[in-house]
Amino acid sequence: MSVAAVCPGSFDPITFGHLDIIERVAACFPRVVVAVLDNPRKQALFSVEERLELIAAETAAFGNVEVDRFQGLLVDYCRAQGIGVVCKGLRAVSDFEYELQMAQMNQRIAGVQTMFLSTSPEHSYLSSSLVKEVARYGGPVTGTVPPRVEAALHAKLAVGTDRSAPGGG
């Protein structure tokens, strides 16, 4: 069994769903790396540096969690870091279909294994995209992200009172 696991993602921003998965992975492995994808072609709300800071602050209490960034193929990062297991959270069957293909490719090209953890029911609806959309229109995101992440969202978006988001808000 590998002594290190990676929890990869964009984490733009990190949610309680992400933190739930990271905490559960940290209970299973002595070393966990939360690897933030640095994709310059993607327009993120938070810079990679901001995401790294927010994640480090939220995971510091776990004790065995490191935060890092990567570009390119995750398996190349895993090889360079001596990591043999990728851990991913699954919210729904649609997540599984995509993640299974990625897991099989990662195993084929680098022998990296993937472990799937089902998201806790109370977080199964959460996604960073949804949280950003609600926050963008001034909706409440309390309980979906930690308080410092919520404050960072409000500061980044200069949240007003427009609640005319599609679907209510």
Structure write-up:
With 169 residues, the chain is an alpha/beta fold. The protein has a domain at 4-121: Rossmann fold (3-Layer(aba) Sandwich), CATH 3.40.50.620. Helices cover 41% and strands 18% of the residues. It has helices at 16-26, 48-59, 74-81, 93-110, 128-136, 147-157, and strands at residues 4-9, 31-37, 65-70, 85-90, 113-118. A five-stranded parallel beta sheet has the order 3-2-1-4-5, with helices on both faces. It is globular. Mean pLDDT is 91; it is low at 159-169.
CATH superfamily of the domain at 4-121, by name, is HUPs
Name of the CATH class of the domain at 4-121: Alpha Beta
Q: Reading side by side through the largest sheet, how are the strands ordered?
A: 3-2-1-4-5
Termini separation comes to 45 Å
Task: List its traits.
169 residues, five-stranded parallel β-sheet, single chain, disordered C terminus, globular, alpha/beta
